[in-house]
Amino acid sequence: MTSIESVTLDVAASRKFYVDRGLAVAKSFSRMYVEFAAGPGPVKPALHRRRALAKDAGVSPDGTGSHRLMICGGAGRRAGAPAAADHRRRPD
């Protein structure tokens, strides 16, 4: 099982956002952490506050690099997704 740990400024609001979209909560620790139930695949999503995740990772919570992450998979493009969503280089 792979855990995708994401950072949020407001765990409670983010939890509500994902629960409203159908994710089930597996574990929750007040406003500090929420782990969602794993679906049929090998990924288990979770949300932390920035300082807590930085502590777990052993890095500064201030960070020095990009605060963005893009996860891509090989499942192909969704029907109706804009062509710009396909970021792979196409042959000329």
From TrEMBL:
Entry's InterPro entries? Glyas_Bleomycin-R_OHBP_Dase
Q: What is this protein called?
A: Glyoxalase/fosfomycin resistance/dioxygenase domain-containing protein
